[in-house]
Amino acid sequence: MKVDGCRNDVPDEIVRTHLERIIQSPQFNASEKQKRFLKFIVEETLQGRATQLKAYTVAIAVYDRPSSFNPQVDPIVRVEAGRLRRALENYYLAADEVSPVRIEIPKGAYLPLFKDTSLSLGGDERQKKASRHEFLFPGPSIVLMPLKNLSGDQEQDYFVAGLTEELTAELARFQDISVIAVQSAMQFKDQEADPKKIGQDLGVRFLLAGSIRIGTTEIKATIQLFDTITAEQIWGMSYKEKLAAADLIAMQETIAQRVVGSIADHYGLMNRRLSKESRKKRPSDLKTYDAVLKFYHYETVLTQESFIQALDALEEAVQLDPDYGLAWAMLGHLHADNHALGFLDGNDSLDKALACTQKGVTLDKDNQFVQDAITLVHFHRGDKELFLKSVTETVALNPNAPYIIGVAGWHLCLYGEWQRGRDLLAQGMVLNPYHPTWFHLALFMDYYHQDDYENAFAEALKFNYPDLFFDPLMRAAALGRMGKVHEAQNAAEELLELVPDFSSEGRELIGKYVKVPELIDKIIEGLIPAGLKITN
Questions:
Q1: pTM value?
Q2: Distances (CA, A) of 190 to 164, 182, 196
Protein backbone atom coordinates (compact mmCIF):
# COMPACT_ATOMS: atom_id res chain seq x y z
CA MET A 1 0.00 0.00 0.00
CA LYS A 2 1.09 3.58 -0.68
CA VAL A 3 -0.08 6.72 1.03
CA ASP A 4 -0.93 10.00 -0.63
CA GLY A 5 1.34 12.65 0.87
CA CYS A 6 0.67 16.04 -0.71
CA ARG A 7 0.38 14.74 -4.30
CA ASN A 8 3.31 12.30 -4.02
CA ASP A 9 3.15 8.57 -3.26
CA VAL A 10 5.70 7.47 -0.66
CA PRO A 11 6.35 3.75 0.00
CA ASP A 12 5.47 2.53 3.49
CA GLU A 13 8.97 1.26 4.25
CA ILE A 14 10.50 4.66 3.52
CA VAL A 15 8.00 6.35 5.83
CA ARG A 16 8.66 3.86 8.64
CA THR A 17 12.44 4.13 8.29
CA HIS A 18 12.26 7.91 8.36
CA LEU A 19 9.90 7.84 11.35
CA GLU A 20 12.33 5.69 13.32
CA ARG A 21 15.18 8.07 12.46
CA ILE A 22 13.15 10.98 13.81
CA ILE A 23 12.25 9.15 17.02
CA GLN A 24 15.88 8.22 17.70
CA SER A 25 17.34 11.61 16.79
CA PRO A 26 18.58 13.83 19.66
CA GLN A 27 17.41 16.78 17.52
CA PHE A 28 13.78 15.66 17.91
CA ASN A 29 12.91 17.44 21.14
CA ALA A 30 9.69 15.67 22.11
CA SER A 31 8.43 13.82 25.16
CA GLU A 32 7.93 10.06 25.14
CA LYS A 33 4.17 10.58 24.93
CA GLN A 34 4.58 12.88 21.92
CA LYS A 35 6.79 10.28 20.22
CA ARG A 36 4.11 7.69 20.93
CA PHE A 37 1.54 10.12 19.47
CA LEU A 38 3.58 10.44 16.27
CA LYS A 39 4.11 6.69 15.92
CA PHE A 40 0.41 6.03 16.44
CA ILE A 41 -0.93 8.44 13.82
CA VAL A 42 1.71 7.43 11.24
CA GLU A 43 1.08 3.70 11.68
CA GLU A 44 -2.70 4.12 11.68
CA THR A 45 -2.42 6.04 8.41
CA LEU A 46 -0.17 3.40 6.84
CA GLN A 47 -2.65 0.71 7.91
CA GLY A 48 -5.47 2.50 6.11
CA ARG A 49 -7.25 3.74 9.25
CA ALA A 50 -6.63 7.45 8.73
CA THR A 51 -10.34 8.27 8.89
CA GLN A 52 -10.40 7.07 12.50
CA LEU A 53 -7.77 9.59 13.66
CA LYS A 54 -9.83 11.76 15.96
CA ALA A 55 -9.01 13.43 19.26
CA TYR A 56 -10.99 10.72 21.04
CA THR A 57 -9.04 7.78 19.55
CA VAL A 58 -5.68 9.47 20.16
CA ALA A 59 -6.58 10.29 23.77
CA ILE A 60 -7.51 6.69 24.56
CA ALA A 61 -4.70 4.99 22.62
CA VAL A 62 -1.84 7.35 23.50
CA TYR A 63 -2.77 9.27 26.64
CA ASP A 64 -4.63 6.49 28.48
CA ARG A 65 -7.78 8.53 28.89
CA PRO A 66 -11.00 6.66 29.89
CA SER A 67 -13.80 5.90 27.44
CA SER A 68 -15.74 8.84 28.89
CA PHE A 69 -13.11 11.23 27.47
CA ASN A 70 -14.57 14.50 26.17
CA PRO A 71 -12.20 16.58 23.95
CA GLN A 72 -14.28 19.69 24.61
CA VAL A 73 -13.45 19.46 28.32
CA ASP A 74 -9.93 18.00 28.21
CA PRO A 75 -7.76 19.64 25.50
CA ILE A 76 -4.82 17.25 25.96
CA VAL A 77 -4.77 16.01 22.36
CA ARG A 78 -5.05 19.46 20.81
CA VAL A 79 -2.33 20.85 23.07
CA GLU A 80 0.02 17.92 22.51
CA ALA A 81 -0.60 18.00 18.74
CA GLY A 82 0.59 21.62 18.70
CA ARG A 83 3.72 20.68 20.62
CA LEU A 84 4.40 17.69 18.37
CA ARG A 85 3.90 19.86 15.28
CA ARG A 86 6.44 22.34 16.65
CA ALA A 87 8.91 19.58 17.54
CA LEU A 88 8.72 18.23 13.97
CA GLU A 89 9.25 21.67 12.47
CA ASN A 90 12.30 22.27 14.68
CA TYR A 91 13.66 18.83 13.82
CA TYR A 92 13.62 19.56 10.09
CA LEU A 93 15.14 23.00 10.66
CA ALA A 94 18.04 21.46 12.58
CA ALA A 95 18.51 18.33 10.43
CA ASP A 96 21.93 18.07 8.81
CA GLU A 97 20.80 16.12 5.76
CA VAL A 98 17.95 16.09 3.28
CA SER A 99 15.43 13.39 4.17
CA PRO A 100 13.70 11.39 1.39
CA VAL A 101 10.36 12.13 3.00
CA ARG A 102 9.00 14.82 5.29
CA ILE A 103 6.25 14.11 7.83
CA GLU A 104 3.90 16.98 8.58
CA ILE A 105 0.78 17.36 10.73
CA PRO A 106 -1.47 20.11 9.31
CA LYS A 107 -3.06 22.45 11.82
CA GLY A 108 -6.58 21.48 12.83
CA ALA A 109 -6.10 17.78 12.05
CA TYR A 110 -4.29 14.67 13.29
CA LEU A 111 -3.78 13.05 9.88
CA PRO A 112 -0.07 13.11 8.95
CA LEU A 113 1.09 14.04 5.45
CA PHE A 114 4.07 12.35 3.84
CA LYS A 115 5.90 14.61 1.36
CA ASP A 116 8.37 13.18 -1.13
CA THR A 117 11.22 15.71 -0.94
CA SER A 118 13.06 14.25 -3.93
CA LEU A 119 10.59 15.77 -6.38
CA SER A 120 11.33 19.40 -5.55
CA LEU A 121 14.35 21.56 -4.91
CA GLY A 122 15.20 20.90 -1.29
CA GLY A 123 15.98 23.50 1.34
CA ASP A 124 19.59 22.27 1.63
CA GLU A 125 20.11 22.66 -2.12
CA ARG A 126 18.78 26.20 -1.94
CA GLN A 127 21.09 26.80 1.02
CA LYS A 128 24.11 25.58 -0.96
CA LYS A 129 23.25 28.05 -3.70
CA ALA A 130 22.70 30.79 -1.14
CA SER A 131 26.10 30.16 0.43
CA ARG A 132 27.77 30.78 -2.96
CA HIS A 133 25.95 34.08 -3.57
CA GLU A 134 27.75 37.13 -2.24
CA PHE A 135 25.85 40.25 -1.21
CA LEU A 136 27.01 43.79 -0.54
CA PHE A 137 25.52 43.86 2.96
CA PRO A 138 26.07 41.54 5.96
CA GLY A 139 22.44 41.44 7.11
CA PRO A 140 19.03 41.65 5.45
CA SER A 141 19.02 43.80 2.32
CA ILE A 142 16.06 44.75 0.15
CA VAL A 143 15.26 46.79 -2.93
CA LEU A 144 11.81 48.20 -3.58
CA MET A 145 10.84 48.11 -7.23
CA PRO A 146 8.79 51.05 -8.53
CA LEU A 147 5.17 50.05 -7.99
CA LYS A 148 3.06 49.63 -11.12
CA ASN A 149 -0.04 51.72 -11.80
CA LEU A 150 -2.58 49.32 -13.33
CA SER A 151 -5.41 51.84 -13.29
CA GLY A 152 -4.96 52.97 -16.88
CA ASP A 153 -4.98 56.54 -15.59
CA GLN A 154 -1.68 58.39 -15.39
CA GLU A 155 -3.24 60.91 -13.03
CA GLN A 156 -3.10 58.19 -10.36
CA ASP A 157 0.69 58.01 -10.59
CA TYR A 158 0.90 60.41 -7.64
CA PHE A 159 -0.71 57.86 -5.31
CA VAL A 160 1.55 55.05 -6.55
CA ALA A 161 4.64 57.24 -6.09
CA GLY A 162 3.43 58.27 -2.63
CA LEU A 163 2.98 54.64 -1.53
CA THR A 164 6.45 53.79 -2.87
CA GLU A 165 7.93 56.59 -0.76
CA GLU A 166 5.94 55.49 2.31
CA LEU A 167 7.15 51.89 1.96
CA THR A 168 10.76 53.08 1.62
CA ALA A 169 10.45 55.31 4.68
CA GLU A 170 8.95 52.51 6.79
CA LEU A 171 11.67 50.06 5.74
CA ALA A 172 14.35 52.60 6.59
CA ARG A 173 13.11 52.74 10.20
CA PHE A 174 14.59 49.25 10.81
CA GLN A 175 18.24 49.95 11.51
CA ASP A 176 19.61 46.48 10.78
CA ILE A 177 18.07 46.32 7.28
CA SER A 178 19.90 47.79 4.28
CA VAL A 179 17.40 49.46 1.95
CA ILE A 180 18.47 50.16 -1.62
CA ALA A 181 17.12 53.48 -2.86
CA VAL A 182 14.23 53.11 -5.27
CA GLN A 183 16.18 55.24 -7.77
CA SER A 184 18.64 52.34 -8.11
CA ALA A 185 15.79 50.15 -9.34
CA MET A 186 14.48 52.67 -11.89
CA GLN A 187 16.66 51.06 -14.59
CA PHE A 188 14.38 48.01 -14.34
CA LYS A 189 11.11 49.98 -14.33
CA ASP A 190 9.85 49.12 -17.83
CA GLN A 191 11.17 45.56 -17.80
CA GLU A 192 9.61 42.32 -16.63
CA ALA A 193 11.11 41.95 -13.15
CA ASP A 194 13.73 39.20 -12.93
CA PRO A 195 14.52 38.85 -9.20
CA LYS A 196 17.72 36.88 -9.80
CA LYS A 197 19.19 39.41 -12.22
CA ILE A 198 18.19 42.38 -10.09
CA GLY A 199 19.64 40.72 -7.00
CA GLN A 200 22.95 40.07 -8.76
CA ASP A 201 23.15 43.54 -10.31
CA LEU A 202 22.37 45.40 -7.08
CA GLY A 203 23.97 42.94 -4.62
CA VAL A 204 20.71 42.66 -2.68
CA ARG A 205 19.00 39.61 -1.17
CA PHE A 206 15.28 40.49 -1.22
CA LEU A 207 13.05 42.28 -3.69
CA LEU A 208 9.71 43.93 -2.99
CA ALA A 209 7.39 44.54 -5.93
CA GLY A 210 3.73 45.29 -6.42
CA SER A 211 0.94 47.03 -8.25
CA ILE A 212 -1.87 49.45 -7.53
CA ARG A 213 -5.29 49.50 -9.19
CA ILE A 214 -7.55 52.46 -8.46
CA GLY A 215 -11.14 52.26 -9.62
CA THR A 216 -14.06 54.60 -9.19
CA THR A 217 -15.13 53.11 -5.86
CA GLU A 218 -12.19 51.15 -4.46
CA ILE A 219 -8.43 50.83 -4.39
CA LYS A 220 -6.50 47.54 -4.49
CA ALA A 221 -2.81 47.08 -3.71
CA THR A 222 -0.95 43.82 -4.34
CA ILE A 223 2.57 43.43 -2.87
CA GLN A 224 5.00 40.50 -3.23
CA LEU A 225 8.34 39.69 -1.58
CA PHE A 226 10.91 37.68 -3.59
CA ASP A 227 14.13 35.91 -2.63
CA THR A 228 16.61 36.97 -5.31
CA ILE A 229 18.64 33.75 -4.98
CA THR A 230 15.82 31.46 -6.07
CA ALA A 231 13.42 34.03 -7.63
CA GLU A 232 10.82 32.44 -5.34
CA GLN A 233 7.92 34.55 -4.11
CA ILE A 234 8.02 33.98 -0.36
CA TRP A 235 5.20 36.31 0.68
CA GLY A 236 2.31 38.26 -0.78
CA MET A 237 -0.48 40.53 0.40
CA SER A 238 -3.56 42.08 -1.18
CA TYR A 239 -5.15 45.18 0.32
CA LYS A 240 -8.58 46.35 -0.83
CA GLU A 241 -10.44 49.37 0.52
CA LYS A 242 -13.28 51.68 -0.40
CA LEU A 243 -11.96 54.78 -2.09
CA ALA A 244 -12.29 58.11 -0.30
CA ALA A 245 -10.10 61.04 -1.31
CA ALA A 246 -9.75 62.25 2.25
CA ASP A 247 -8.31 58.89 3.33
CA LEU A 248 -5.65 58.43 0.63
CA ILE A 249 -2.71 59.39 2.85
CA ALA A 250 -4.05 57.22 5.67
CA MET A 251 -4.37 54.33 3.19
CA GLN A 252 -0.75 54.73 2.13
CA GLU A 253 0.38 54.66 5.75
CA THR A 254 -1.77 51.62 6.64
CA ILE A 255 -0.60 49.59 3.63
CA ALA A 256 3.06 50.47 4.27
CA GLN A 257 2.89 49.62 7.98
CA ARG A 258 1.28 46.22 7.38
CA VAL A 259 3.63 45.26 4.56
CA VAL A 260 6.80 46.33 6.37
CA GLY A 261 5.61 44.86 9.69
CA SER A 262 5.21 41.46 8.08
CA ILE A 263 8.54 41.36 6.25
CA ALA A 264 11.03 43.60 8.09
CA ASP A 265 10.22 43.06 11.77
CA HIS A 266 12.48 40.98 14.01
CA TYR A 267 9.95 38.18 13.46
CA GLY A 268 9.33 39.13 9.83
CA LEU A 269 9.78 37.02 6.72
CA MET A 270 13.29 38.22 5.87
CA ASN A 271 14.85 37.42 9.24
CA ARG A 272 13.00 34.10 9.39
CA ARG A 273 14.45 33.13 6.02
CA LEU A 274 18.00 34.16 6.93
CA SER A 275 17.78 32.59 10.38
CA LYS A 276 16.80 29.23 8.90
CA GLU A 277 19.79 29.34 6.54
CA SER A 278 22.20 30.36 9.28
CA ARG A 279 21.36 27.25 11.31
CA LYS A 280 22.52 25.12 8.36
CA LYS A 281 26.00 26.63 8.25
CA ARG A 282 29.16 25.07 9.61
CA PRO A 283 30.72 27.02 12.52
CA SER A 284 33.69 27.94 10.32
CA ASP A 285 31.32 29.61 7.84
CA LEU A 286 29.53 31.79 10.37
CA LYS A 287 29.88 35.56 10.22
CA THR A 288 29.12 38.16 12.84
CA TYR A 289 25.56 38.74 11.66
CA ASP A 290 24.82 35.02 11.90
CA ALA A 291 25.08 35.43 15.68
CA VAL A 292 22.19 37.90 15.44
CA LEU A 293 20.18 35.35 13.46
CA LYS A 294 20.86 32.71 16.11
CA PHE A 295 19.45 35.12 18.67
CA TYR A 296 16.29 35.53 16.58
CA HIS A 297 15.95 31.75 16.43
CA TYR A 298 16.33 31.49 20.20
CA GLU A 299 13.63 34.13 20.69
CA THR A 300 11.33 32.00 18.56
CA VAL A 301 11.81 28.64 20.31
CA LEU A 302 13.07 29.61 23.81
CA THR A 303 14.89 26.34 24.49
CA GLN A 304 18.05 25.76 26.48
CA GLU A 305 19.85 24.42 23.41
CA SER A 306 19.04 27.48 21.28
CA PHE A 307 19.96 29.74 24.23
CA ILE A 308 23.43 28.20 24.51
CA GLN A 309 23.97 28.38 20.75
CA ALA A 310 22.99 32.06 20.66
CA LEU A 311 25.09 32.86 23.73
CA ASP A 312 28.21 31.20 22.27
CA ALA A 313 27.72 32.90 18.90
CA LEU A 314 27.19 36.38 20.38
CA GLU A 315 30.15 36.07 22.75
CA GLU A 316 32.32 35.25 19.75
CA ALA A 317 30.71 38.05 17.72
CA VAL A 318 31.61 40.77 20.23
CA GLN A 319 35.17 39.42 20.30
CA LEU A 320 35.40 39.64 16.50
CA ASP A 321 33.62 42.99 16.33
CA PRO A 322 33.75 44.74 19.74
CA ASP A 323 32.01 47.84 18.32
CA TYR A 324 28.86 45.95 17.24
CA GLY A 325 26.27 47.54 19.54
CA LEU A 326 23.40 45.27 18.48
CA ALA A 327 25.39 42.14 19.36
CA TRP A 328 26.23 43.56 22.81
CA ALA A 329 22.54 44.36 23.40
CA MET A 330 21.46 40.87 22.38
CA LEU A 331 24.10 39.35 24.64
CA GLY A 332 22.69 41.42 27.50
CA HIS A 333 19.18 40.30 26.58
CA LEU A 334 20.30 36.67 26.87
CA HIS A 335 21.79 37.25 30.32
CA ALA A 336 18.52 38.90 31.42
CA ASP A 337 16.57 35.89 30.13
CA ASN A 338 18.93 33.58 31.98
CA HIS A 339 18.15 35.45 35.19
CA ALA A 340 14.43 34.82 34.64
CA LEU A 341 14.41 31.38 33.00
CA GLY A 342 17.50 29.77 34.53
CA PHE A 343 18.94 28.06 31.45
CA LEU A 344 22.43 28.11 33.02
CA ASP A 345 23.62 28.33 36.63
CA GLY A 346 24.87 31.67 37.90
CA ASN A 347 23.87 34.45 40.27
CA ASP A 348 25.37 37.37 38.34
CA SER A 349 23.20 37.23 35.21
CA LEU A 350 21.51 40.59 35.84
CA ASP A 351 24.87 42.31 36.44
CA LYS A 352 26.15 40.87 33.15
CA ALA A 353 22.92 41.92 31.43
CA LEU A 354 23.28 45.51 32.61
CA ALA A 355 26.95 45.74 31.62
CA CYS A 356 26.33 44.34 28.12
CA THR A 357 23.26 46.45 27.37
CA GLN A 358 24.95 49.63 28.60
CA LYS A 359 27.84 48.82 26.26
CA GLY A 360 25.34 48.38 23.45
CA VAL A 361 23.69 51.73 24.17
CA THR A 362 27.07 53.47 24.21
CA LEU A 363 27.85 52.07 20.77
CA ASP A 364 24.44 52.35 19.10
CA LYS A 365 22.05 54.46 21.17
CA ASP A 366 19.63 55.10 18.28
CA ASN A 367 19.07 51.40 17.56
CA GLN A 368 15.59 50.50 18.78
CA PHE A 369 16.44 46.92 19.69
CA VAL A 370 19.43 48.13 21.72
CA GLN A 371 17.14 50.43 23.69
CA ASP A 372 14.63 47.60 24.09
CA ALA A 373 17.33 45.39 25.62
CA ILE A 374 18.14 47.89 28.37
CA THR A 375 14.39 48.34 28.95
CA LEU A 376 14.24 44.59 29.59
CA VAL A 377 17.06 44.86 32.15
CA HIS A 378 15.24 47.66 34.00
CA PHE A 379 12.14 45.44 34.02
CA HIS A 380 13.98 42.51 35.61
CA ARG A 381 15.80 44.76 38.09
CA GLY A 382 12.40 45.95 39.31
CA ASP A 383 13.13 49.63 38.68
CA LYS A 384 9.65 50.67 37.51
CA GLU A 385 10.46 54.37 37.07
CA LEU A 386 13.43 53.68 34.81
CA PHE A 387 11.50 50.94 33.04
CA LEU A 388 8.53 53.18 32.17
CA LYS A 389 10.85 55.98 31.00
CA SER A 390 12.81 53.54 28.86
CA VAL A 391 9.63 52.07 27.32
CA THR A 392 8.51 55.50 26.16
CA GLU A 393 11.92 56.30 24.66
CA THR A 394 12.16 52.91 22.93
CA VAL A 395 8.72 53.05 21.30
CA ALA A 396 9.34 56.61 20.12
CA LEU A 397 12.27 55.45 17.95
CA ASN A 398 9.86 53.56 15.67
CA PRO A 399 6.18 53.44 16.72
CA ASN A 400 5.46 51.03 13.84
CA ALA A 401 7.96 48.27 14.69
CA PRO A 402 5.64 45.33 15.53
CA TYR A 403 7.99 43.26 17.69
CA ILE A 404 9.31 46.16 19.77
CA ILE A 405 5.93 47.77 20.44
CA GLY A 406 4.45 44.34 21.12
CA VAL A 407 7.19 43.57 23.66
CA ALA A 408 6.71 47.00 25.22
CA GLY A 409 2.99 46.29 25.66
CA TRP A 410 3.77 42.80 26.97
CA HIS A 411 6.05 44.14 29.71
CA LEU A 412 3.66 46.96 30.58
CA CYS A 413 0.84 44.45 31.13
CA LEU A 414 3.06 42.35 33.38
CA TYR A 415 3.79 45.48 35.40
CA GLY A 416 0.06 46.13 35.79
CA GLU A 417 -0.13 48.96 33.23
CA TRP A 418 -3.04 47.16 31.59
CA GLN A 419 -4.64 49.73 29.28
CA ARG A 420 -1.48 51.07 27.68
CA GLY A 421 0.01 47.59 27.58
CA ARG A 422 -3.00 46.03 25.84
CA ASP A 423 -3.09 48.79 23.23
CA LEU A 424 0.58 48.43 22.28
CA LEU A 425 0.46 44.63 22.35
CA ALA A 426 -2.62 44.56 20.11
CA GLN A 427 -0.98 46.97 17.67
CA GLY A 428 2.14 44.80 17.44
CA MET A 429 0.12 41.64 16.86
CA VAL A 430 -1.96 43.26 14.11
CA LEU A 431 1.03 44.72 12.27
CA ASN A 432 2.88 41.39 12.17
CA PRO A 433 0.82 38.19 12.12
CA TYR A 434 4.06 36.24 12.68
CA HIS A 435 4.45 37.54 16.24
CA PRO A 436 5.85 35.13 18.87
CA THR A 437 3.21 33.06 20.66
CA TRP A 438 4.67 33.98 24.06
CA PHE A 439 2.87 37.30 23.56
CA HIS A 440 -0.20 35.40 24.82
CA LEU A 441 1.25 35.24 28.36
CA ALA A 442 0.41 38.92 28.88
CA LEU A 443 -3.09 38.46 27.47
CA PHE A 444 -3.60 35.52 29.83
CA MET A 445 -2.61 37.70 32.79
CA ASP A 446 -4.92 40.47 31.64
CA TYR A 447 -7.95 38.17 31.49
CA TYR A 448 -6.97 36.34 34.67
CA HIS A 449 -6.73 39.49 36.78
CA GLN A 450 -10.24 40.40 35.56
CA ASP A 451 -11.59 36.98 36.69
CA ASP A 452 -12.29 36.04 33.05
CA TYR A 453 -10.92 32.53 33.35
CA GLU A 454 -12.49 31.12 30.18
CA ASN A 455 -10.64 33.63 28.00
CA ALA A 456 -7.53 33.29 30.15
CA PHE A 457 -7.54 29.55 29.47
CA ALA A 458 -7.97 30.20 25.74
CA GLU A 459 -4.87 32.40 25.79
CA ALA A 460 -2.95 29.74 27.73
CA LEU A 461 -3.61 27.25 24.93
CA LYS A 462 -2.03 29.66 22.43
CA PHE A 463 1.22 30.03 24.43
CA ASN A 464 2.68 26.76 23.11
CA TYR A 465 6.08 26.61 24.82
CA PRO A 466 6.00 23.15 26.45
CA ASP A 467 9.52 23.49 27.88
CA LEU A 468 8.65 26.63 29.88
CA PHE A 469 6.87 26.26 33.21
CA PHE A 470 4.42 29.04 32.35
CA ASP A 471 2.76 26.74 29.80
CA PRO A 472 1.24 24.24 32.28
CA LEU A 473 1.10 26.89 35.04
CA MET A 474 -1.37 29.05 33.14
CA ARG A 475 -3.58 26.09 32.27
CA ALA A 476 -3.52 24.74 35.84
CA ALA A 477 -4.41 28.12 37.40
CA ALA A 478 -7.22 28.87 34.94
CA LEU A 479 -8.70 25.37 35.13
CA GLY A 480 -8.51 25.48 38.91
CA ARG A 481 -10.50 28.71 38.93
CA MET A 482 -13.00 27.22 36.46
CA GLY A 483 -13.64 24.29 38.79
CA LYS A 484 -12.19 21.71 36.40
CA VAL A 485 -10.18 19.98 39.06
CA HIS A 486 -9.13 16.84 37.18
CA GLU A 487 -7.82 18.78 34.19
CA ALA A 488 -6.09 21.25 36.52
CA GLN A 489 -4.36 18.38 38.30
CA ASN A 490 -3.10 17.00 34.97
CA ALA A 491 -1.62 20.38 34.11
CA ALA A 492 -0.07 20.61 37.59
CA GLU A 493 1.64 17.25 37.01
CA GLU A 494 3.19 18.65 33.83
CA LEU A 495 4.35 21.68 35.82
CA LEU A 496 6.04 19.54 38.45
CA GLU A 497 7.80 17.53 35.74
CA LEU A 498 9.41 20.77 34.56
CA VAL A 499 10.03 22.23 38.05
CA PRO A 500 9.95 19.52 40.75
CA ASP A 501 10.51 22.13 43.52
CA PHE A 502 7.77 24.44 42.30
CA SER A 503 5.99 24.38 45.68
CA SER A 504 8.95 26.16 47.25
CA GLU A 505 10.20 28.10 44.22
CA GLY A 506 6.92 28.98 42.50
CA ARG A 507 6.36 32.44 43.93
CA GLU A 508 9.86 33.58 43.00
CA LEU A 509 9.64 32.08 39.50
CA ILE A 510 6.29 33.70 38.76
CA GLY A 511 7.60 37.00 40.12
CA LYS A 512 10.44 37.01 37.62
CA TYR A 513 7.88 38.15 35.05
CA VAL A 514 4.69 39.09 36.90
CA LYS A 515 5.36 42.35 38.76
CA VAL A 516 1.91 42.70 40.38
CA PRO A 517 1.98 41.07 43.87
CA GLU A 518 -1.82 40.73 44.08
CA LEU A 519 -1.87 38.90 40.74
CA ILE A 520 0.85 36.51 41.91
CA ASP A 521 -1.28 35.71 44.96
CA LYS A 522 -4.29 35.14 42.74
CA ILE A 523 -2.38 32.74 40.47
CA ILE A 524 -1.14 30.79 43.49
CA GLU A 525 -4.69 30.55 44.83
CA GLY A 526 -5.79 29.18 41.46
CA LEU A 527 -3.27 26.37 41.79
CA ILE A 528 -4.73 25.09 45.07
CA PRO A 529 -7.56 23.09 43.42
CA ALA A 530 -4.87 21.50 41.22
CA GLY A 531 -3.18 20.19 44.37
CA LEU A 532 -0.34 22.70 44.45
CA LYS A 533 0.32 24.70 47.58
CA ILE A 534 3.05 27.30 47.25
CA THR A 535 5.09 28.20 50.32
CA ASN A 536 6.38 31.74 50.79
A1: 0.63
A2: 16, 14, 17
